[in-house]
Amino acid sequence: MRRRLATRAPVLATALALAWVLALLLVAGATGAAWAADVGKGADTIQVSDDRGRLVRLPKAPQRIVSLLPSLTETVCALQACARLVGVDRFSNWPASVRGLPTLGGLEDTQIERLMALKPDLVLAAGSSRAIDRLEALGLTVVVLEPKNLQDTQRVVLRVAQALGDADAGPALWQRLQARVAAAAARVPPALRGQTVYFEVAAAPYAAGEASFIGQTLARLGLANVVSAALGPFPKLNPEFVVRAQPDLVMAAARNLADMPQRPGWGALKALRQRQVCAFDERGYEVLTRPGPRLGEAAQMLADCLVRLRPAALSP
Fold this sequence. Notes:
Elements: H1 2-42, E1 46-49, E2 55-58, E3 65-67, H2 70-78, E4 85-88, H3 112-117, E5 122-125, H4 132-137, E6 142-144, H5 150-163, H6 169-187, E7 196-202, E8 206-207, H7 213-220, E9 224-225, H8 239-245, E10 249-253, H9 254-259, H10 270-273, E11 277-280, H11 282-288, H12 295-314
Parallel strand pairs: 3-4, 3-5, 5-6, 7-9, 7-10, 10-11
Antiparallel strand pairs: 1-2, 7-8
């Protein structure tokens, strides 16, 4: 009996070893299959890093989008995804097609319940929106993006394109915008290059400084901003600051520009007396103050004004 067992021991050991190897292969195969399934499952997943530094994941390209900032609304539309918008903030009004969408308030008073009823699979919001935490607590996917300068605007264009599931559309759109800005810069009369400019965004006065997207666009057109980057993108100024700066050119909304000569001391501004000014109507001012896909149009508007000022600039 012992001799028989001793004879069979190697055979049993071999069989057990083969069974063990087979079991390992089966486990490895199952694990590999599961891993492959996960990879396949994640192949269509969209990942976007937003302004909070968070990596936001979407299982697929969103089809029901809410935008809570005009520049984000305009970017979605410029990327040919306007039809996917189901709601916007109260200030989104371009292109015309968005005016028929449900409006959901602003940065301070987003209508949460109304927004939830729209069942969006993506919400685009500004970092300054008070609704972000509540929306995420309710289970919505929120991508936070808010451009303040040209670099921000480029990043937002690229990341909105990613979020839409069409990453290639972002660089293409940005290239078109830059081509329009370059074309506008080429039209600026040489006599105006290097002249100083004050661009007012509100009557307090608040200015568009060098660090803002408006200031950077003005720099692309060859103008020198009297408000340095050190003061921030949109600083509130002491009115005397502008008088002391004596800008060669003044730019503002038409309604604000009309009031400037009545401000204490501003009658001394040569630019106002000599009408070296660019006054923008409501629509034009809106285009100029939104950091989005209409930046090229904004640059062209600025160039239009500078071309009209050329005779005055060349006169003695």
